[in-house]
Amino acid sequence: MSTKVEVLCPNGHRITVKTNPNTKLLQILEEACSKKGFQPSSDYELRHGIGRKVVDPTLTMRYAGLANNAKLELVKASQSRATGGTVIVALQTDSGRLQESFSCDTSLWDILLHWDNQVERSNEVKLTAPGHMTPVCVYMSEEVVGEFALRETSLQHLGLLSGRAIVRFLLREVDEKTLQEIKNKILKENLRKAKLAEQQQQHEQHVPENVAQANSAPEPMDVTEAPVPSAGQPPISTDLPCMRIFPSDVAVPTLQPQVIAPELPRREVMRAPRVRHDAPPQPNFSEFKFPEATKGKDLYQNELSEACKEDFKPCDREMVVYNVNREGPSIAVDDDIPPDFFEVTEKDLRMLMADQQKKLLQESDQPLMTQSMKKALNEMKLEKYSRAILKIHFPEKVVLQAVFRPRETVFAIEKFVKSILDDAVPFYLYTSPPKNILKDKTQTLIEANLVPMSVVYFGSDLKKDFYLSKSLLQKMSSEREAIEVIIKHMPTESKDLGVVPTSVPVRVPGAGSAKSDGHIPKWLKTGKK
Question: Which Pfam family, an example, fits this chain (predicted)?
């Protein structure tokens, strides 16, 4: 699979280098340097990423973690890369492993010849074999097949500049066509590198003549002083024939002494006086005193100072604790309930139909609530409900009912619950369904939609049998007391708050009905028999 990378050079030029998974980053570095004339290449390095991390030139594209069309930057290295280093090569053969140190410029063929020439190692490394067996060297995932490729491939070409490396040697049967293709590919690559080197050499030798002349210093001129002819002497002639500086009939001008003009007096420039801008005087507060008339008074007043100060203070919680599994006191009910108690009258039907129509009308024609509309609705709730009742359900089937102000925050609820726990355990409060954890501690009860009455659940990652304090569990009450607290604080008259109450007819046993005499209304008749 053919890929490519883009290299940004120090001069601002960009170079696109074609690569494959086995291409070494050192090859990319050398090609970029040769194309733009940054020599020697050992003085440069490649960087990649936002942090401009230096990449290892010995890695391949497969293991360097570079994607296709990756952006690399060619920069001047702070320290030149070592060249001509020594590499410890371990040659893995079928019969064992051979180890020796070689220069990074050594080709793989020379390495094989090193062990092939040794008498005691000649049986392990055989470069000549009967048939079409061809020597192959494998380094990581790159294979070098054939004698020609082994001669042209050095350790530096494999990215080995120093350190240790394991190279596997084996004999494989390869046809002539494959060997010729490998040879042509290597020759084509060598030709391309030769052209790049030639272009670089021509670029270095091609220097404009005018640039060279500009850089060279001009040669000094040989000027000799000629004697000045005096009056009455013939004019001076040159040594060249038929050429005179002054004609014979022209008087030679005499040199006059140079007179230097006297230095003129310097004129003084009148400058405007600099105006000094002094800082304004600071007032002295050492003798300042507040008026005696305002002593001890709260002078800070705004629209929320008196009106809403009480709404944020904790109120009497009127705490009630009861067990949901415990049955309350039984209500004396007459076992002989008349049949007319279960009959639905015309009045009951009209009330149910009116409630359903209102509810349907509200759901269908409900406008989108803006922020100002929600705020106005909350203000109307505050006018109707002065208290909010919360029923906190604990895992031990115990319900804690408490009273809060609508403007109190979720933090106040957590503070109250924390004060009645047996131990200081981490916990959280949530509503359900769906499960919504009360995370925002600054949210008021109205904003959390807990007004006028809501059920809140207690949750904790620490499992215990009882979370409430023992003294509170000993004072368990009945559910009837909790209902009395609800009746005490909930308003009896409904106001138009955008919520349509659903009316449920309540029938009292034994009360009967006005139309319970067995007479069937006309509208309820199904027809004649």
Answer: TUG-UBL1
